[in-house]
Amino acid sequence: MLNDIYTETSEHMDKSIEAMKRDFKTLRTGKVSTTILDNIKVDYYGNPTPLNQAANVVASDATTISITPWEKTMVPEIEKAINEANIGVHPNNDGDSVKLFFPPMTTEQREEIAKQAKAMAEKAKVAIRNIRKDSNNTVKDLEKEKEITQDESKQAQDKIQKLTDEHIAKVEDTLKTKTDEIMKV
């Protein structure tokens, strides 16, 4: 019973870290990546469709992303979606495709993006702490219902705290790695 709680707690905390890593992929680092466009959806025959499912998205060099839609009629829609997404560049439409030219990042931009990464990490930490709280409440309920002893409850809460500490450390390590990547010129 307690092992199920530990397993479930760990799995939920792992998912919080994975969500943070997915969020990190949308942040720009020194070299431009197509993942910066992952959250952009285009109107494709009335349906909001992820950009990479309506076009071929390629990082042609360190500062350029080229977007070639499956259908040429989609070029204006893609241009509009990118403008609305406000990712820091304006799309260049050549009739057949859309190109995004990212200027080299300034120190201020790097610091701002590092702040965004820190905020994403804080969000993950809050999620992990909420998972800890829920798990501890489940353990306390078991103790109230006399399904486990007070000592078992204390041990279970200690183990949940240990899991929390381990996952918070993973968040910190991942944030440090991402911040280093962002700040590297």
What report would you give on this structure?
- With 185 residues, the protein is an alpha+beta fold.
- The chain folds into 2 domains: 2-26 and 106-183, Ribosome-recycling factor (Topoisomerase I, Chain A, domain 4), CATH 1.10.132.20; 34-101, Gyrase A, domain 2 (2-Layer Sandwich).
- Helices cover 58% and strands 15% of the residues.
- It has helices at 2-25, 75-85, 107-144, 150-183, and strands spanning 41-44, 47-50, 55-61, 64-69, 92-93, 98-101.
- The strands form 2 sheets. It has a 4-stranded antiparallel sheet with strand order 3-4-6-5, with helices on one face. A two-stranded antiparallel sheet has the order 1-2.
- It is elongated.
Short précis:
With 185 residues, the protein is α+β, with helices and mostly antiparallel strands. The protein is 58% helix and 15% strand.
Radius of gyration: 22 Å
- Reading off the top of the CATH hierarchy, the class of the largest domain is best stated as Mainly Alpha
Task: Report the uncertain regions.
Answer: none
CATH superfamily of the largest domain: Ribosome-recycling factor
* Architecture (CATH level 2) name of the largest domain: Orthogonal Bundle
Shape: elongated
Structural class category: alpha+beta
Give the strand order, joined by hyphens, for the main sheet.
3-4-6-5
Task: Output the number of helix runs.
Answer: 4
Number of strands: 6
Order of helices and strands: HEEEEHEEHH
Spatial separation of the terminal alpha carbons? 51 Å
Percentage of residues in strands: 5-15%
Annotated CATH topology of the largest domain: Topoisomerase I, Chain A, domain 4
